[in-house]
Structure formats: structure tokens, C-alpha cells
Amino acid sequence: MAENETLECITEHERILQEIESTDTACVGPTLRSIYDDQPNAHKRFMEKLDARIRNHDREIEKMCNFHHQGFVDAITELLKVRADAEKLMVRDITVTAQTEEVIRCRIQQRNMATTVEKLQLCIPGTTSAFVYYAALKTMEQLEKVYIPRVSQYRFCQIMAENLPRLREEIKEISMSDLKDFLESIRKHSDKVGETAMRQILTAQDLVDFSPVYRCLHIYTVLGDRETFENYYRKQRKKQARLVLQPQANMHETVEGYRKYFNQIVGFFVVEDHILHATRGLVTRAFTDELWNMALSKIIAVLRTHSSYCDDPDLVLELKNLIVIFADTLQGYGFPVNRLFDLLFEVRDQYNETLLKKWALVFREIFELDNYSPIPVDTEEEYKLVVSRFPFHDAEIEKQDFPKKLPMSQSVPQIYTQVKEFIYASLKFSESLHRSSTEIDDMLRKSTNLLLTRTLSSCLQNLIKKPHIGLTELVQIIINTTHLEQACRYLEEFITNITNVSPETVHTTRLYGLSTFKDARHAAEGEIYTKLNQKIDEFIQLADYEWGMAESDGRASGYLMDLINFLRSTFQVFTHLPGKVAQTACMSACKHLSTSLMQMLLDTELKQISMGAIQQFNLDVIQCELFASSEPVPGFQGDTLQLAFIDLRQLLDLFMVWDWSTYLADYGQPTSKYLRVNPATALALLEKMKDTSKKNNIFSQFRKNDRDKQKLIETVVKQLRSLVNGMSS
């Protein structure tokens, strides 16, 4: 049993030795303690075992050393050689270290210099940055007054101090360059600035970057040269104002030309207004007022000139709207604009002129296309359509069955409608003018009066004088003007309904249309009389009397019967004319016919007239008298119309009856049977009937054997000459 314990002890010691050989030295303590804690005398046996292990390792080491001895000797030899090289290297390393320290010191100096340069550059940023000029000047001032004096012994500080004035000038130049760029930019873009301001009413600061002005102003102020800057800025802006106020030559041709002109001006003064309020004295109120007054005079002169070139009312209306927006915009910035609104009255007159020219063309076209016949209406709908366009009321016509005719021609409702359209067009100009209803009413009535008394009146007068307008057309024109005259009160009501100004108002202007249509009607009446006379003259020129005929044909001349028929049919057309017009025309025609026949008898080219020709002539005059007595136009009292031929009748009766004794005896008496026979007329005709040629004694018809008759004729001639001479004396 003791033998087994000994074996176990040996085995345990072997394990402990292996553990000591293979374990970290920090763990050996507990292992050794276990030997002493074991059986008694165990440590002695362990020590013996340990000594045996050491001797074993020594033998192993000796074997190893013997095996590597030569290599070890060689290594020692090499190591000795390396030692010498190491000593050399150490000397050189010490040198390098010293040089490295010197390099480090140089690098530190370079870094410090770079930092210094960087800081100096930050101190004078005006040389490189356009946005911190003012700060740069402040920094330079600090350098000059505070920091440079502290290190003035250094050369670079002296150089810096010498360069500061130059740097200040460079900053001035750069800031001035920025200002010039700013001025050029706002000159180019002033129309855009103005357009936006007029459309949206924004502030200038919303539209323009003013920082170049502020910077330049601050810089010049800091440098004590503000007055120079102010003078330069004001001078440049005055120049730009003159450029802005100069219009394009063709500005009046389009609304865009006017719009760009106004936009530029608004843009200019929006900028100046902001400068006035934001810069404390760069510009003054007096300066901007001076600029505005100069601009206002130029603007008014330009608009007067260019608007006068315009003949398009729509363009003039657009111009008016632009002027209103322009004035309202600048008034919002505090600029006085009363003169612009006064100018609008002149533009309004120009607008009315263009309207009048436009409506003159409208009226002419209506007159040219009119058929000058009463308007036919076949149905109730057609009738209502006409009276909806023109205020026509006639109880008698309304009672008539369809189809029927209205007395006026188609031009009447068209003219009436166009006058209303003119009033609407004229009203458009009054919008947004900030005028009272009374002023607008007055403007409308005045412009409408111009339309009626000038434009329409002129068109009517020209129409009446046109060669193709005959008697039928003239009659219709008279009827038309009568109805248009009656419609004037409805135009008054039309304007009143628009303006809500009572026509009874003291200052209300009345429409003068009544005089226009009366004048046109009188002109048409006069033209009727003239054309009737011209037509009578045409028939008279067809007369072909055989003045030497022995006796009459027993019937009236053909030309005269044609003339009578023409007059009869013409006066039938006159039934729609006012009574006095038809009567005057008829009386005028009969008087002209009577005068023409008398002139035919007394024509100096006619040398001889036979009694047969007198009888034939008498038959023609009888037809004229019959026509007059047939009442071709109603309304004459008694034989008023026949009296147109009384001179001819008494003259012919005197010769037909040969009643010279009565004529001579009663001459000068108011009750004389031949009161209308002038002695000179009787003498002229009697001399045409005397036997002067002896070849054709026309008096042979009267008592050939009565020589006393010839003596009587001679006596009558002498007495007539005596009467004529007495009248002339």
C-alpha cells in the first residue's frame, strides 16, 4: 500500500512540473502551495524531482549550444561590426534631429505668416468682396488708428499704412462701378418695374435690389465725399428721366407703344420715390418734385401730339384707360396728377372726334343703302321689330290691316339705333374718370349734340345735294327728318336713364337735334323747289312754237301737256309731306312755270310773233290754269294757285281782246282790269307784233281796210313808250 502511495506521489509531481513548464508564471504560486499542503515530506521528493528535471534541461541546452556554437560565434562577430555602424548612425541621427527641429521651427514660422496674411486679408476684404465694403473701411480705420501704431516698427505695417489710401480709392471705384451697373439696369428694366407696379401696386423694394445704392452712399459718406455722390446720382437720374420721357416715333400706332411709355415713366418714379424715403437726403422732395413737374409737362405735350395722330376711337379709349391707371398709380406714390386728369378732357375731345368720323362713315353707308321708300310690314312680328328699334306711334296706321307701310324709310330706325350706339361709345370714356353723374350727363349731351348738329347734319346736307337724289327721294328725306325730329325727346330720355340726371336740372344741356332735322328738312325742301324748277326748265326747252303761225292748232302744245302730267304725278307723291311743304312746292312750280313762259314770250332773240302764235300760247296757259284750279295739292284757299299765272293771263287777254283803250285809261288804278300788265312788257310784245318788214303784215287780219287801226297801234306804241319813260324817270 505504501508502494501505491509512492507511485501516486511521483505521478502528481510529474503533473506539477509539466504545469509549471507550460503555465504563466503568475499561476505558479498556487501550484507550489499544493505541494506543501500534501503529505509530509512530499516537498522533499518534489525538490528531488525538480533537480532531476533541471539537470535534464541543462543537458538539452548544452547539446543545443554545442550544435549552434559556430553560428553564435558568427553572430557575435557580426554584432560587433554592427556596433560600429550603429555608432555612426547615432551621430548622423543626432544631426538629423537637429535639422528636423530647425525645419519644424521654419514650418511654424510659415504657418504663422500664412495666418497673418489670412487675417490681414480679412481685415481688408474690400479688395476682393463687393458686399462688405463698409466693414472693410471700418476695419482699415481700426488698423490705421489702433493696430498699426502698435507694430509700426515692422516693414509690412509701414507698407500697409501707405496702401490704405489707395485701397480706399479702389473701394470707391468698385462701389461706383456697382452703382453705374445699377443705374444701367434700372434704365433697361424700368418698363418692367413700372408694368408690375401698375398691375399689382407693389413697392419698389419688392421689385428692385437697392443695395448698390446703399453701399455706395455709405462708402462715400464714410469717406467724407457724400456731396459728390449725391450730385452724380441726381445728374445721372435727370439724364435717364429725359431718355424715359422721349417716346418712340410710332408710339401712337398701337396701345403697346403707349403702355411701354407709361411703364417706363412709372418705373422711373417708383424708384425715385423709394430712394427719397429710404436714403435720407440722397434725393430731396424738391428734387423729385422738379423731376415730376418736368416729366408732367413733357408727358402732356407728347400725349397731345401723338393722340392727335390717332383716328381709331378704340385706341384712344385704350389710351384713356392707360392714362387713368398711370395717374392712379403715381398718385398712390404721392405725385400730383391733376394736370393728367385735365388732359383727359382734351383726350375726350379727341376721342369724340374719332367717334364722329367713324359715325360719319356709318351714316353715309346707311344713306347709300336706303331705298327711300316707306317700310313695308307684312306681319305683327315685323311691325313690333321696327317699333322696338324706333319709337314710332301712329294710331291710324296701327288700325290698318297687314300688310301695311310705315311712312319712314329703313334708314330712320338705323340712324336712331346708331345714335344710341354713339351715346354708349361716348359713355365708355367717362368710366373711371371719377366724375359726377351731372358731369357725365353733360358730356354725353354735348357729344350727342355734336353728332346731331355736325356729323349727321353734314351727312344729310351732302345727301340732299347728291345728283342721284331725285324728287321722290327728297320727299322721303323730308318725311324721315320729321320722324327723327320727333324722336329726339326719346334720346333725351335715353341719356337720362343712363345718368339718372333729370332733364329739368338747371345745368342740363339740351339736345339740339331739332334744329338739325329742321335745317335738313328746309334744305331738302329748297332742293325740291330747285329740282322741280330744273325739271320744268327741261320741259320748257322742248317747246317748239311756230311763232309766225297764222292760227293756233286748237289744242295745247305736247310739251306742256307732258309737263302738266309730270307735275300732277309728282304732287301725288307729295301727299305724305307736311301740308305747307307740298303747297309751297306746288306754288313755287307754278310761279316758275309762269315766269318761264313769260320769258319765252319776251325773249330778245324772238323778233316777231303772230296773233296765231299768241292764240296757241294762250291755249297752253289755259292748261296751266286748269291744272292750278284742279287742286293738285290740297290746302289752297280759293284761286290762290291760279294767281301764279295772273301776269300771263292779263297780258294775253289784253292782246287777245285788243283792249288797249281800257288798259291805257285805267293804267295806275288799283281797280284796273290789267293791273298786272307792265307797260314795258306790253310794249316789248307789241313791237314783236308790229309790221316792220312790210313782208308779212300780221295786222292785215284786223280790218284790212281800216287805216285808222294802224294809226291806233302807232298811238298805243307811243303812249306805252311814254309810260315806260315816265316809269324810268
TrEMBL record:
Exocyst complex subunit EXOC6/Sec15 C-terminal domain segment(s): 340-688
Biological processes, Gene Ontology terms: Golgi to plasma membrane transport; intracellular protein transport; vesicle tethering involved in exocytosis
Keywords annotated in UniProt: Exocytosis, Transport
A UniProt-annotated Pfam family: EXOC6_Sec15_N
UniProt superkingdom: Eukaryota
GO annotation, cellular component aspect: exocyst; plasma membrane
Family: Belongs to the SEC15 family.
Xref: PANTHER family: EXOCYST COMPLEX COMPONENT 6, SEC15
Name of the protein described by the UniProt record: Exocyst complex component
Organism field: Stegastes partitus (bicolor damselfish)
